[in-house]
Amino acid sequence: MNNRILSLLSVMALSGSAAAEVAYELVPNFITPPPGKETIGNGHGEIGVDSAGKIYVSVQDKDAGIQVYGTDGKFIKALPLPPSLHGFVVRKDDGGEFIFAAVLGEQKVIKCDLEGKVLMTIPTTEFPADKVGKGLKLTNCDVAPNGDIYVVDGYGQSHIFVFSREGKFKAVFGGPGEPLKLANAHKIFIDRRFEPARVMICDRGHKRMLHTDLAGTFIGEIATEMRNPSSASFHGDLMCVAEIAGNVSVWDKENKRVADLGTSPKPTNTPGIEPKDWQQGIVTSPHGITFDNDGNILETEWNKWGRVLRWNVKK
Amino acid sequence: MTSSECPNDESPMHHALRSFVIRISTFVFLTHPLCALGHGAEFLSAKLTLRPDAEVLLEITADFGGNPLISDEAVAREALTDPVRLSAEGTLVALSDVAAPSISQHQNWAEFAPASYLPPDTEGQEHRLITAAWRWRSETPEIVFEVPKGKLHDVLLWTRDETRPDAPPRWMLLLAGDKSKAISVHWTPWWRRWQTVMASSFLVLALGYFVSRNFTLRQRTL
Questions:
Q1: Total domains, chain A
Q2: Model-level pTM?
Q3: Residue in A with minimal Cα distance to B178
Q4: In Å, how far is A94's CA from the nearest CA of chain B?
Q5: B45 — alpha (psi -120 to 50), left (phi > 0) or beta?
Q6: ipTM
Q7: H or E element: which one contains B197?
């Protein structure tokens, strides 16, 4: 613990030298919840931004689906989608812009347009039966440059499934066994900072992040001894990471930590911290994260009341 | 019900029964995924109870129904074999070296995790819990726990002081390599114990003296 605090302090000190390149400032109370609500609602999902800058937040309350906010943080509408969108991405693919989402409670993946109309479903039956086990617990998905859809069974066996753009099964890798030995691979992302693109895995159980190539071959660890990495996003050469045990970190392409934001004084991992106990700019349990198109960071938390924090990049 | 709704070789009663079973199965099948939303407790919950006279009770619970890191009962039992150690003067002491654990299975999360850490949607979620309990008398006024480096499971350590039942429990989440703050037990220093022994001995002697004196006086009077 002491070592972790010391390393965080060192990083914060060192970030002074890196501050010319990357520094952030909190935007207090950025999100305006839907009318009649004090908070956005039960948060256990993801946050994303489309090419127009609109912000999408998945909320687990009944009929909540994905809430859409403007660039100013004001609520616009809710998309009629399932309530258990644990992980999703907003991606341009095949001439359009779509939401690809893992529906944790229904063991399936959906692709929909930005109005929430479902265009394609990858049902449980499309997954290889010998990997379904006692039931899939799909936690996230992302899209490779060639249109392949990568899906992770993060609350299940941590297998990573690959489907074609049309939703046909192609391959599977990862899981608890050799060589990757994943444990609670909470979310995966296609890291397009590299050419060819890589798979970035939040191996939360082992408190590490790692890269594989698109075929699942191990490339290397990005970082270890983290506060349980849960989600990530990319902008330019940077990657921001939501660490559910109480931290948001920013990494460069050489896998150097260049900033820590909102660090909780003591580790936490709970949805039960009430709004009265929230502290301005201090995270509780970060669960989803995204850069917007200008490199600002938005983070959503695992929290029964729902919470979103924003840090703007200093220019 | 008309006969056309039943197969020829099935009575209406059998048909109704079969229909009922199918409906129940369908309901269970459809609702099961909702119950399996996962993301319960992704830690071992370590409930520490401080009792008078340096007695310590540590109950560590693993959930193999809602913890994605614990797939089944065998993994849960393995996780409980050496989840946290006592840190003493630079060395780590396994719990099995201070006491033998007692193991129990139950579904009562509420008693084994602090309220703010209870997994959400507990009404619809199945929890299968195993608790290992160690009980011992501390030989030091303070105890420190440490999760050894490389351990897969985080440990939520929450402390209840049995002598102050109204005080809110304190908790801390320990990741691998983390050490808890020093926790004070209700420890009685040796000199206090000696004081008690001496005072008790004095009282016994004094009582004995007065009894024997009264007895002697009564004998003389007779």
A1: 1
A2: 0.81
A3: A1
A4: 32
A5: beta
A6: 0.78
A7: helix B190-221
